[in-house]
Amino acid sequence: MIETIDLVKRYGDHTVLKGITTEIRDGEQVAIIGPSGSGKSTFLRCLNCMEDATSGSIIFDGVDIADMSVDINLHRRHMGMVFQQFNLFNNKTVLQNIMLAPVTVAMSDRRKIRREAFFVRLANLFRRNKKPVPDYGKTPAQIKEEARANALRLLAKIGLTEKADVYPSTLSGGQKQRIAIIRALAMNPKVMLFDEPTSALDPEMVGEVLSVIRELAEENMTMVIVTHEMGFAREVASRVLFMDDGLITADGTPEEIFGNTENERLRSFLSKVL
66, 180, 194, 268: which could form a disulfide with 225 (CB 3.0–4.6 Å)? Predict the structure, then answer.
């Protein structure tokens, strides 16, 4: 689903990613582990071009999204992103937060179709063989109702239906992060990217967020998770990448990574975190 080829990211004279070549296959749950400053979060943010690669390629569904000529927003629709700090809109209710992206995208697509239809009608005035006028599809009311129904379905899935009309400021950290996850899921993404989703949470709230991610894994959602939760990576991931100094220096199943005795740097890292 995603392939990176010789991916490099520099900030001035500092090279954070030093030529990463790897692939994320459909249905995989890939955990990225490694010491702070190794480039884990930068790599994740490059995958959906929140950070522009200095050089190299990022192939998503057959398209090099690192190419500046590509409309990245069209491809980001299919990539869900969950951050450390939730990033919910505090001036919108939980329901409005979840509905925002699907409604905005659907309305934008509808406006494009309307413009196309206008020019087809105009050109048809001068054509002998008229071209069919594009159908607008759903009405604005239908778009909003469909997004609302989907948002309520997702809230029910995580047991927070009663929070639909409250504002994020009234929620606990664990609740905010679960809302952030289903907000990303509301776009029906092909892949979910998690950037240390539990690092900003109190210890007692970590479990409720990890349980949501675990359910997604059981549903074979393609996921890439930067995490410091080694137990979670071992239990849930189908594959683990170990990053050190801007490179992937170990890649394998959880059993292979956590049982690795040959990679000295990996062994040293695990001895400090397990």
Answer: 194
- Taking all residues of the chain, what is their mean pLDDT, rounded to a whole number? 94
pTM: 0.90
- Helix H, strand E, coil C: the string for the chain is CEEEEEEEEEECCEEEEEEEEEEECCCCEEEEECCCCCCHHHHHHHHCCCCCCCEEEEEECCEECCCCCCCHHHHHCCEEEECCCCCCCCCCCHHHHHHHHHHHHHHHHHHHHHHHHHHHHHHHCCCCCCCCCCCCCCCHHHHHHHHHHHHHHHHHHCCCHHHCCCCHHHCCHHHHHHHHHHHHHCCCCCEEEEECCCCCCCHHHHHHHHHHHHHHHHCCCEEEEECCCHHHHHHHCCEEEEEECCEEEEEECHHHHHCCCCCHHHHHHHHHHC
Could you give the CA distance from residue 33 to residue 243 in angstroms, rounded to a whole number?
6
User: Any idea which residue has 């884990």 for tokens?
Assistant: 40
Q: What is the residue type of 201?
A: L
The two three-digit tokens of residue 118, written as one number = 């206008």
**pLDDT category, 136, cuts 50, 70, 90?**
confident
| CB environment 220-239: b (16+ within 10 A), e (fewer) | ebbbbbbbebbebbbebbeb
The answer to whether the CB of 177 falls within 8 A of the CB of 197 is: yes
d(CA 254, CA 263): 14
